[in-house]
TrEMBL record:
Record key words, sorted: Phosphoprotein
Superkingdom, natural source: Bacteria
GO biological process: phosphorelay signal transduction system
Protein name as catalogued: Response regulator
InterPro entries: Bact_response_regulator (IPR050595), CheY-like_superfamily (IPR011006), Sig_transdc_resp-reg_receiver (IPR001789)
Residue span(s) of domain Response regulatory: 23-136
Protein's organism: Pseudaestuariivita atlantica
C-alpha cells in the first residue's frame, strides 16, 4: 500500500485524538509499563499491540508493519538496541521508532542504533507521549490547527503491577544465575519508576551495583535477599487487598 493511498484511508487525526489511525507495537516485558502505554494510546486514538520479548516482536514484525515501534532496551532474551537497529535498517521503514528505558543513559545508544527518539520511564504523561510521537510523523499525519497540550497523567491498574511482581518472584527463584538476577534488577527498576515505588527502585539499584561490584558473591549478598524479600512483600500486600 503506497503512502498516498494509505494516508487517504486512515482516519484523520484530531485535536483530542492526535494519533488516530496509528498502530503502536510496544515491545515491553513489564505488564505495568505496557498498561500505561495502552492507556496513553487509548487516550490518543492509537491502537496498540504488545510483544514481551525480542522473539515475539520479530514474529509480529514478520506479519505486519506498525506505524510506531516502541522498544524497551532491556528485554528478557536480549537487548532492545538490536531490534531498533534491525527495524531502522528494514525497508519500508517503520514511520516512528522509539527506544525506552528507566535508564536514560540508554538514550544515546538507542538513537545511534537508528531510533528517532527516546521515552524515559516512567512514560505516564499524555502530553509527553503525544508530542514525542507527533514530532517524528510527517505533516500529513499531524492534527490540523493549534492544539492544547493535555495535562493528564495515566495510572495503570494495580493488577498489572501484581503480575510484574509475580514475574519477578519467578525470575528470582534462581539467585545463582547472575544474568537472571541482573535482568530482574533492571526490570524492577523500570516497574518501580512507573509505580513511583522508591523502596523497590532503591533495592533494584543496590542489586545492580552488587552485580557490577562483586558478581561472584551476588547469590549470597544481603542486597539480593533484601530485594527478593521486598518483592515478596509487594505480592503479599496485594493479595491481602
Amino acid at each position: 500500500m503506497d503512502e498516498l493511498f494509505q494516508s487517504a484511508v486512515l482516519p484523520k487525526p484530531t485535536e483530542t485524538r492526535p494519533l488516530l489511525g496509528l498502530t503502536v507495537l510496544a515491545v515491553e516485558d513489564s505488564r505495568f509499563a505496557c498498561e500505561a502505554l495502552r492507556l496513553l494510546c487509548l487516550r490518543s486514538g492509537a491502537r496498540i499491540r504488545r510483544a514481551d520479548c525480542l522473539t515475539s516482536a520479530r514474529r509480529h514484525l514478520k506479519v505486519y508493519r506498525p506505524s510506531v515501534l516502541i522498544v524497551d532496551v532491556g528485554l528478557p532474551d536480549g537487548s532492545g538496541i538490536d531490534l531498533i537497529a534491525e527495524a531502522a535498517a528494514s525497508s519500508p521503514r517503520i514511520a516512528v521508532i522509539l527506544g525506552s528505558s528507566g535508564d536514560d543513559t540508554q538514550a544515546s545508544a538507542a538513537v545511534l542504533a537508528g531510533a528517532d527518539g527516546f521515552l524515559a520511564k516512567p512514560v505516564v504523561s499524555l502530553a509527553e507521549f503525544q508530542e514525542t510521537v507527533l514530532s517524528h510523523l510527517p505533516d500529513t499525519r499531524q492534527p490540523k490547527g493549534p492544539r492544547r497540550l493535555p495535562h493528564d497523567v495515566v495510572q495503570p491498574d494495580q493488577i498489572a503491577f501484581q503480575d510484574d511482581m509475580l514475574h519477578l518472584s519467578s525470575v528470582l527463584s534462581d539467585l545463582g544465575n547472575l544474568s537472571l538476577v541482573d535482568y530482574a534488577a533492571r526490570f524492577a527498576a523500570g516497574v518501580a519508576l512507573t509505580a513511583d515505588d522508591e523502596a523497590l527502585l532503591d533495592a533494584a539499584k543496590a542489586v545492580s551495583s552488587e552485580v557490577e561490584r562483586a558478581p561472584a558473591s551476588v547469590a549470597t549478598s544481603s542486597a539480593v535477599h533484601d530485594f527478593a524479600d521486598l518483592v515478596a512483600m509487594r505480592i503479599d500486600r496485594q493479595m491481602a487487598i
